[in-house]
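Batch job 17 of 40 flagged for manual review because the log was empty.
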Amino acid sequence: MSTLDERAAARRFEDRPVPPRRIVPLGGDEVLVETAWGGFVVVPSFNLDMAIGVVRDGVHEPWTTRLVQLLLRPGDICLNAGAGFGYFACLAGRRVGAAGRVVAVEPNPHLLPFLLKSLHWNGSHGHTEVFARALSDEAGREIACRFDPQRLSTLPPRCPAAEGPEEPGLPPDGRWSAGTVGRLVDAEGRWGKGFGLAVPFTATTTTIDRVADRLALPRIDLLHLDLGGAEPLALRGAQRVIAGSPQLRILTRWSAAHHARLGARRRAAFEEMWDFLAGLGYAVRMLEPLIDRDGGIQLSTPLTHEAMTTLALPGHYLWSPGDDDALP
């Protein structure tokens, strides 16, 4: 969906007029933004994808925001991985309240300061735990990653953009500037819209089961994963939590293109988790990228294995028990 389409959807997010939102520059690259749902996040102003919608419209992906609002209730437990600067972790914190718990998992040291500050400004730091880890199916591994600040994307090992030696002269923050803009154009001087400046960092892995054990969580009600293709490994490392949380819903970003890029280990994890979730009676549906004027959202009919591996468009996909009658 284009930026203009998302902006139009944001205008329909609430049917009634809303008061002006507060947007406060905090200095440097930090902007404090009051969201359309009443929370606060500290946004990195250098970002060009997620931050634009939050600053301009007060909402990121109105359809995903609305689904999370519908899925979470006071007292629930939510784990949000790939938490970034904290938009969905702060939303979850507002929804579950002080009686609930939120776990935000984010391995990127360039985003962690924004996440921590967002939680404080949002007033949800008291019932939110933060883990500076990358989710996988085993704990304690060191993995090399790259980060594109303008896109807020974390690139996993063996991703083409993450290969090769360190680029000489690349500033440590990877921001667009007079010194780096030459890397964003081709030999003819034309801007390459897919070009990026990837900054390296190292992350340590953990598993969802390990996090749940560490916090003595009795269950998890919502797993919200945005891991750039590592979702199958994260789910493989969450089998105890999944089996012990009968009302669990799993919200993942996914596409057939994700599946096509999977290496052998991640592909095997996808097949294993497909069978595991199907055996527990789960079905998966795509969240349509639109929102009705009355705030309603739409989910597709349950998708087959073939659809998820060959046809699935980029977006969010909801896994839930097949008899789940509480969905919108």
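Reviewer: the log was empty due to a logging misconfiguration, but the result itself is present. Residues 156-166 have pLDDT under 50 and may be disordered. Unflagging and moving on to job 18.
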